[in-house]
Specification:
Length: 236
């Protein structure tokens, strides 16, 4: 995990990216969309596998602990980020080419940036330490989910305030996410369970057709995100 992070830093603009022509040669602009698609696909498949291995019974029986850990893990970093935001804002607000931004929005962004959890990284660490299926791992994952939900909502609100001047985009993203989750839970899941019963996949293990169907359904979640974002952007 640490090696992958260091590899990303080395290949990025901080180290090798400072070499003239390196980024344009190794990562030409026309390749970036394809790399992003592959990265998103790998991330969704990895989180899907993590979801398969997580036993929610541990979370339901320890939700109070998970909630307290999540709250502390969110509030303290957010407060520290808010504490240093004023100095950063005053230092860089007059930089050439910097877009003017209200201090309140900047404070929100710095606080969220400090508090948000790198959930995929957390999953990788727990997987490599073989803690994913333990009560400690389940509580840690549940806390990370709570931090991420609140953090990404606040980040969406922050971006909306900068780009649109209102919370409409953030509200739209939240409602779409809730609607998509409800659609999967109450429309897709019953149909999928019917297919599993018809193919005896629950008793005998998934067939090849069921595995293909599952991967297609997971891929739909990857396709849905950029589609709804582009649709809202074009309407706006």
């Amino acid at each position: 995990m640490v090696g992958e992070v260091l590899g990303g830093i080395l290949l990025g603009p901080s180290v090798f990216g400072r070499i003239p022509g390196f980024t344009a040669t190794i990562f030409p602009p026309e390749s970036i969309p394809n790399l992003n698609n592959v990265a998103n696909l790998g991330l969704i498949l990895f989180l899907f596998i993590i979801g398969l291995e997580v036993d929610l019974r541990y979370f339901l029986s320890n939700w109070k602990i998970a909630l307290s850990v999540s709250s502390v893990g969110l509030i303290i970093p957010f407060a520290l980020g808010a504490a240093i935001s004023y100095g950063i804002h005053e230092q860089f607000k007059d930089e050439p080419g910097t877009k003017p931004i209200a201090y309140g929005t900047f404070l929100l962004f710095i606080g969220v940036a400090m508090a948000i959890t790198a959930f995929p990284v957390l999953c990788r660490i727990l997987t490599e330490l073989k803690l994913l299926s333990t009560p400690v791992g389940i509580i840690t994952l549940a806390s990370g989910v709570g931090d991420d939900v609140v953090g990404w909502v606040l980040l969406a609100l922050c971006v909306a305030l900068v780009n649109a001047g209102s919370g409409l985009v953030a509200l739209y993203i939240i409602l779409c996410a809730i609607g998509w989750g409800l659609f999967l839970a109450f429309a897709v899941r019953p149909c999928f369970m019917w297919v599993l019963h018809r193919t005896n996949s629950l008793q005998d293990g998934p067939t090849q057709g069921v595995m293909v169907l599952t991967i297609l359904m997971v891929s739909c979640c990857l396709i849905w995100e950029p589609c709804r974002t582009r649709a809202f952007t074009s309407q706006a």
